[in-house]
Amino acid sequence: MVISEQPKYTKADFESDNDVRWCPGCGDYAILSAVQQVMPQLGIPKEKFVFVSGIGCSSRFPYYMNCYGFHTIHGRALTVATGVKSVNPELSVWVITGDGDGLSIGGNHFLHAIRRNQDFKILLFNNKIYGLTKGQYSPTSEFGKKTKSTPMGSIDTPINPISLAIASGATFVARTVDKNVKHMMDILKQAAEHKGTAFVEIYQNCWVFNDNAFVSYTDKDVKSDNSVYLEDGKPLIFGNNHEKAIKLNGFHPEIIKVAGSNNPLIHDAKSEDRGLAYVLGQMGVENPGLPVAFGVLRKVQRPTYQELLYGQEEQAKQKPKGSLEQILNSGDTWVVK
Amino acid sequence: MVISEQPKYTKADFESDNDVRWCPGCGDYAILSAVQQVMPQLGIPKEKFVFVSGIGCSSRFPYYMNCYGFHTIHGRALTVATGVKSVNPELSVWVITGDGDGLSIGGNHFLHAIRRNQDFKILLFNNKIYGLTKGQYSPTSEFGKKTKSTPMGSIDTPINPISLAIASGATFVARTVDKNVKHMMDILKQAAEHKGTAFVEIYQNCWVFNDNAFVSYTDKDVKSDNSVYLEDGKPLIFGNNHEKAIKLNGFHPEIIKVAGSNNPLIHDAKSEDRGLAYVLGQMGVENPGLPVAFGVLRKVQRPTYQELLYGQEEQAKQKPKGSLEQILNSGDTWVVK
Amino acid sequence: MSTTQTKIVKKTESLEEAVIRFAGDSGDGMQLTGGQFTTSTAIVGNDLSTLPDYPAEIRAPAGSLAGVSGFQIHFSSKDIHTPGDALDVLVAMNPAALKANLQDLKPGGMLIVNTNAFTETNLKKVGYAKNPLEEESLTTKYQIFSVEVTRLTQNALEDLKLSAKLVDRSKNMFALGLMYWLYSRPMEPTIEWVKKKFAGKPDILEANLRVLKAGYHFGETTETFISHFEIKQAEIKPGKYRNITGNEATVLGIIAAKEVTGLELFLGSYPITPASDILHELSRYKYLGIKTFQAEDEIAAIGSAIGASFAGGFGITTTSGPGVCLKSEFINLAVKTELPLIVCDIQRGGPSTGLPTKTEQADLLQALFGRNGESPVPVIAASTPSDCFETMLEAFRIAIKYMTPVFFMSDGYLANGSEPWFIPSVSSLPKIEVKYRKEKEGFAPFVRDEKTLARPWAIPGTCGLEHVVGGLEAEQVTGRVSYDPVNHDAMVKIRAKKIANIENDIPELKILNGSDKGDLLILGWGSTLGSINAAIEKLLENGHKVANVHLRHLNPFPKNLGAVLKNFKHVLIPEVNLGQLRLLVRARYLVDAQGLNIVSGQPLKVRDIVEAAEKLLK
Amino acid sequence: MSTTQTKIVKKTESLEEAVIRFAGDSGDGMQLTGGQFTTSTAIVGNDLSTLPDYPAEIRAPAGSLAGVSGFQIHFSSKDIHTPGDALDVLVAMNPAALKANLQDLKPGGMLIVNTNAFTETNLKKVGYAKNPLEEESLTTKYQIFSVEVTRLTQNALEDLKLSAKLVDRSKNMFALGLMYWLYSRPMEPTIEWVKKKFAGKPDILEANLRVLKAGYHFGETTETFISHFEIKQAEIKPGKYRNITGNEATVLGIIAAKEVTGLELFLGSYPITPASDILHELSRYKYLGIKTFQAEDEIAAIGSAIGASFAGGFGITTTSGPGVCLKSEFINLAVKTELPLIVCDIQRGGPSTGLPTKTEQADLLQALFGRNGESPVPVIAASTPSDCFETMLEAFRIAIKYMTPVFFMSDGYLANGSEPWFIPSVSSLPKIEVKYRKEKEGFAPFVRDEKTLARPWAIPGTCGLEHVVGGLEAEQVTGRVSYDPVNHDAMVKIRAKKIANIENDIPELKILNGSDKGDLLILGWGSTLGSINAAIEKLLENGHKVANVHLRHLNPFPKNLGAVLKNFKHVLIPEVNLGQLRLLVRARYLVDAQGLNIVSGQPLKVRDIVEAAEKLLK
Ligand SMILES: Cc1ncc(C[n+]2csc(CCOP(=O)(O)OP(=O)(O)O)c2C)c(N)n1
Ligand SMILES: Cc1ncc(C[n+]2csc(CCOP(=O)(O)OP(=O)(O)O)c2C)c(N)n1
Ligand code: SF4
Ligand code: SF4
Ligand SMILES: [Mg+2]
Ligand SMILES: [Mg+2]
Predict the structure, then answer these.
(1) What domains can be seen in chain B, in order of their start residue?
(2) For residue C519, is pLDDT > 80?
């Protein structure tokens, strides 16, 4: 993105004059505010931002940003974003989706956008529930979850969005939580700066239909025992007094005491092997008993879809095959007199 | 499945009288023959088999089996199989799909069927190409692959079906290849006996549009160097003279000499941690330079969707809430005289 | 205003009917209030019809226009058909509710407002520069009753030491109590309900009862209201009744059909407004062996239902318009493989996401034509909330007898609207015969029943009938894949004929009101029935030679539709779309049918139909 | 049979026209043979029309009926319209080809067979108990020419030491050479083509040329054929021509529109027969900046195209019927957000997977109505292979001028069939104006152009015009989300009016043949044009007062359609469906139009139209 002139924005520049219509207490507010605070720091002209969303409470997001936006249809935001970014790679494209939108109906586009390394950001608001349709279980709801559509409890094993993103070859994968605005802003900034698909899972509290789903990671009494904040090149240390660490036993992470430390695991977000990020992403989600990892799990570089697309175009332009006139007149032609 | 009487079948019992219409030389023939040979060994009455497929060359499979079959629509076979198995759990349901059918248009159903542990077998014929539509690249085609729709080469990083299956929580994951009929039959038998989703990737040569895609694993001169055949509880040894083995360096598999062996990696298909299977599945596919692993990568038990579904039903039947008469008369009723 | 305890004897006026609406913030519990009022009204024996109106937002900002929730009920001592065009009473819990609803109040109607909510902030939120209650335009046009609902509620609960939130949430009970008094309804049903619902929460239980009674006594004692009303019991067929919404009736229809046929029932669905409640409700009947599957999307939902039908169960899928788009490829597979299936389309405002919580009838042509190729399906539509029950049984009958997918059409208005329902006895339900093919002799997947043209239902597990079905064209009888030109033409025509022939197996159309010849016939389908019936009554009263018929079967049409149309000079087809049935009728019968087409997300108004009819009659 | 080198002087008969078909196994190269014959025929200056017929299988078992591949060409010294109903010459390379095609050969027609392929095994494969060439029923009905094509090919290549496979694959060249001789076509174009194509493979090059010439000389020298034919140059407009298929013309139309508009062009597609070739072809024009994206499915394909249009590019998506099903939800989003987009539906046999390689016209009502809610879109259809070019330009014009998705309808017959095309000069192409909104002043996303009712195209990156679009109903002008009833009704009607108004901006319908009053009007659309034109010529010859008009615009209709219809006693609408246009015409104009509806996966036969017309005229 070539930036000629860097306008100075404030948060207010990114606030639209549409009434925000989420329930009072919804975690979406914090995310909106974090995004509005990060935008002015990116040095990108406001008119170059595009917010594309699907359908869901979370997907109302674009209405509240004073930017270009497209509130598309359920589960399909990534496909629209693909077209937007492909014809105008100058734009900064942000996709807003929910756990239902992005992983239930939209699961296929999720994995294909990621494997192509489409050059946009994906913010997945994971509240482990369908909010807008009033409380059915979602692909991230816990096994056994009782909801309107599962009165005896869900019998589906949930998806871990991070595992799926990594298996799809994601180049940037991170996790954060609505209540930790500072962390969220840091992650959003890193995502913005990443070239290629940046996938950010945001734990988001749905106050009405699934309150306290993430209380283990937000309640001040317990959060430090249940969360480990990743820093690249640093050991995985957590606990109220930073007294615990993670160590690997084969592929299995285990909790150890920092005191008398036995080689705590050192985070390496840039590792070409996906194994580490995969195992870290599973902690506390697919592997209970372990803290959940927040922060950037993986951040590697490979050419983006748009770079490759325009690269081929450039290459083709080196050997143009003819003007419209010539194209029309190609093939076996003959003249009738 | 309760089997009262075990009819004795031969391969011929599973051959339909429809003309087989694949191209001569197509790998599909070998798979068909392997399946027809395995069926008689399973002790299941023939009328209880159902073959469900999508659309593609591979998906013509049901026509050639003398069983119940449903040739559905492109990418959606798993959804139909879900309904079949849910209303009649006595059936042995086999889904036949291709790399395009199962992973491109059908990718979402793939991950959701697997996470639910639907009790059926998925045979994915991976020929790394769209056969039926005459040669476009597929989600498993190599980066840079030139096809009818990618004259300058594909710019999509391929999907590894095994990685995706594992990230989706698959309980049985295996890989085999059309030319190794004996191995294929062994894998098919294990898949048949697994309770829950059994996912089998079958490398299949498309003679017309992508010939020799798997020659590294089938050509007798090179195959032993490029393939490692997994056996549960056994070290990963390969090479023409069984002279090479795999060892782990952190998450990264490396090739070592067997002689003077430094702890070759021992396969553990039943490990609850998915990490091992994930890393094995990547070998040679996402991690070049390593041999590709054939055999059963993962085989664990968790309740199947149908067990859970009927389990809840049984539980609910313990506390029946009323007959139709009572249901109709429930709610606030009043009598008009 | 005083809350004195002196009891004043008040006048009771007798009325024939009334239309009232509770309106407030989404958080104010208006749907619940309306529901309770409905129950008591039903028990009193009035005929009734209701119309809830939800906001699209889960919980829009408190006090905003977007957050207004309303519940309308029309009740009467006579037979009625609609929730009513205009209101006799509007209860407005805040300025937003006033602003959003006032236009529907009859001139001279009663406006009961919670004045405590008319604060400056709240007024500003909805753009009132001044308090409208003080505007002459209002005070002269309506009877305004200013009630300090919030404060009176607080007073009633003062000594209970409840949280402010809880106190605030009880104020709907005040409004309810007041309206009970105003229309002389018994409080007992609500008292019972509160006791049951809050059995484990004595605080809330006590609070609700106190406030309910406070509202009632407020009416009785304060001087604000000088009289109250009584509406006699309607003359309705004796028997047992319940109040029922369209979605509830749809669910009961499915359960009844399951019991009548004895089939495994499998619902494959994906949540979508206004269809989701069918999924929710049905998922509570696991003990009957009913299977509900919340799929990953609409495609998987219908795919699983088709799989269920192939395996010998009965597959249903429920959705609304955008979901129908996604299901269309699979519906075609069911058409081609000739499997029984019901697709329930609970129509909402379109196109695209449109107006998810509003009603519309604009998916009819989609149901008929929204698929590639020639793809005939029977389409039937319910016309009132309770009619969803019978219509669903009819959908099952056709699907099974003719081995075909069937479209069941309802809409947002039917789905959430309610009416009293005469509870049928189980023995009175239609019999639906199910025959699986068992005999090998002469079996082929596409041999057809001579009369119905249906193919056999031969299910996996049946020894000797192994066969494969699929989406490619099939050879007649054998069902083998066939690319033969003559065969394709024949199959296209057989599929069409099979569905067209159903006209011989459905009741002829009956004139509902008026006589069978005249100047104007009003032809309708679906949820417009109530408005049309009411309009016809008016038109007959006004001395016009009018009549109406209403279609349950949209494809095929009843056999005598053409003949019925020919007996009238004019034909008017009112629809909440731009003329979809009209297109079909004009094409088929070459009759110059005219339309009344108001697509506002709301049921048609009786007065609009009357007006359109009288214009044609001029 | 002798291969003597003595040259015999043979008679040359002059003919007006001929219909021939090459038929053989999929592996026999019949499509290539037909393509070469077409080129030479075009160069001779005949008018021509072709019809390839592929099997659905990639490569069905050799010698099986399912594997038969055919290529038909009709060529003439006069103007012609169709590939012909019946064959003058059938070239059958094996028994399967004979069996599958014989019914189309005219009595007395020439049957040229490769007798070497009539082995017992091959005969058995297709169920011939005896060699049919020896059956009296054949020998008396047709002129049979038994040629040992395989052996003669082997002879010609004896000394080259090629693999048996290669030798076998060359035998189509023998048939081609023979037919060149029979119809006095020059071999040079094919010789040039072989030289270019096999430049790097001297063996194959040599083999092909030798066999081609061997075939030619065989005709010249052997006594089997006593005369050959000559067909004079047709009187066609002077200028430069090329032969073109519908899919090729579609691609050129897209490229031309891209160049004319200067827009970024983005094709989002997912492979499906018979549309895939458009994706393949277009992907070769990266040097023009044309972007093609093979998406993961049809939904992603159209979604990306809509994203492209939102961002200021031009989005296209290409598919066939089953893909249209999947795209319908997104088409609705484009309707609601009013973005330019072209949806190309290359129709094939349906319903469901149907007959993927066959033609049909049965998606018309799907295009018009296959979405929830009121969702108006312009629909236009090409009528001949080359007409796809102009029709595509028209689709662009409408999409951009009116800010709307447009359906472009073609079908399997147009897609793969070919005809000579007068190559237009670039300067003669229509201008299509593109205006992005730039001015802030007075901007709102849904302010409309007074005349076209189009909203502005304001694209991301434009400072000051930031706005959000989406699928929820929008307030007029501002485009904000609105649940207001009156607004919804107004928006539904504005969207409908915008599309209906296009009737003022499209040419009036012209009578193509016959005069503008008479007994019978034949009304058609799409690929039936050729057959209808030919039928009308016959009917006029037979002295009937008939005429025909043909629709490019199916929605809206040309303004004068109603008036045109009124001038005829009867109206006949021949369609390869069960009467879809007929339904629309009857509904709109209340005209008792009759249909001719043969849905066999093939273009309509001229004789069937003539027959249907004459029946009506009785
Ligand atoms: C095609 C289609 N199917 C279903 C729906 C109904 N629907 C809207 S949002 C939603 C789920 C939303 O869940 P999620 O993405 O988790 O968002 P949240 O509301 O929780 O933020 C559903 C099922 C729809 N709008 N369109
Ligand atoms: C909805 C729909 N889209 C596209 C197609 C066209 N189509 C048929 S098969 C196929 C791809 C097949 O690829 P794969 O699954 O790999 O099967 P293979 O032929 O290679 O065995 C496609 C795109 C279709 N039939 N239906
Ligand atoms: S329903 Fe839940 S997710 Fe939706 S706005 Fe309310 S609190 Fe937020
Ligand atoms: S095209 Fe390829 S995959 Fe299909 S039948 Fe032929 S060889 Fe097999
Ligand atoms: Mg959610
Ligand atoms: Mg494939």
Answers:
(1) 11-229+269-310 (3.40.50.970), 233-266 (no CATH)
(2) yes
- Phi and psi at D143, nearest 5°, equal -90, 110
Cα of A97 vs centre of ligand 5, distance in Å, is 8
Nearest residue of C to residue D66, measured between CA atoms: C483
Minimum-distance CB partner of B159 among A115, A308, A315: A115
Residue C100: HSE in the Cβ half-sphere, 13 Å Cα cutoff: 31
Nearest ligand to the C-alpha atom of residue D328: 1
Spell out the residues 6+ positions from residue D136 whose beta carbon is closer than 8 angstroms to its own.
none
In chain A, which among 290-319 make CB contacts under 8 A with chain D? 309, 312-313, 316-317, 319
CA distance C258 to B87: 13
pLDDT tens digits, one per residue of B2-16: 445 566 899 999 999
Neighbours of A142 (CB within 10 A): 14
Given an 8 Å threshold on Cβ–Cβ distance, is A115 in contact with B169? no
- For every residue of A175-186, DSSP letters joined together read EEETT-HHHHHH
Report the phi/psi class of residue D94: left, alpha or beta, with left for phi > 0 and alpha for psi in -120 to 50: beta
Q: What is the ipTM of this complex?
A: 0.94
Phi, psi values for residue D127, rounded to 5° = 80, 20
C chain contacts of residue B337, beta-carbon cutoff 8 Å: 238
CB D153 within 8 A of CB D170: yes
Nearest CA in chain D to B158: D296
Residue C65 in contact with partner chain B when CB distance is under 8 A? no
**Average pLDDT estimate for D565-574:** 98
Structure tokens at C466: 């192994």
Residues belonging to chain A = 337
Residue labelled with tokens 């004019």: C570
Mean pLDDT is lowest, of C245-259, D148-162, D258-272, D385-399, for D148-162
pLDDT in tens, D395-414: 999 999 999 999 999 999 99
Pairing of strands B172-177, B198-203: parallel
Go through the domains of chain C in sequence order and give each one's CATH number. Answer: 11-231 (3.40.920.10), 246-428 (3.40.50.970), 518-617 (3.40.50.920)
Give yes or no for A107 touching D (CB within 8 A): no
Ligand 2 neighbours by CB, cut-off 6 Å = B 55-58, 74, 98-101, 125, 127, 129-133, 138; D 270-272, 298, 322-323, 326, 353
User: What is the length of chain D?
Assistant: 618
From residue C354, give the alpha-carbon distance in Å to each of B108, C435, D475: 26, 42, 12
Return residues 573-612 of D near C (CB < 8 Å).
Answer: 577-578, 582-584, 586-588, 590-592, 598-602
Using one digit for the tens of pLDDT, what is the confidence trace for B78-117? Answer: 999 999 999 999 999 999 999 999 999 999 999 999 999 9
* Residue pLDDT, tens place only, A273-300: 899 999 999 999 998 899 999 999 999 9
Residue C402 has φ and ψ, to the nearest 5°, of: -105, 5
* DSSP strands (E only) in chain A: 49-53, 68-71, 92-98, 121-126, 172-177, 198-203, 227-229, 237-238, 244-249, 252-257, 292-299, 333-336
Q: How far is CA A312 from CA A321, B156, D284, D378, in A?
A: 14, 13, 11, 35
* pLDDT, average across residues B291-309: 98
- Mean pLDDT is lowest, of B40-44, B317-321, C65-69, D101-105, for C65-69
Set of chain D residues whose Cβ sits within 8 Å of the Cβ of C337 = 352
Name the nearest CA neighbour of A285 among A163, A107, A131: A163
Give the DSSP per-residue string, A100-121.
Answer: HIIIIITHHHHHHHHHTT-SSE
Inter-chain touch D300–A68, beta carbons under 8 Å: no
Distance CA C177, CA A73 (A): 43
Tokens of C227: 């009289």
Are B252 and A275 an interchain contact pair (Cβ–Cβ within 8 Å)?
yes
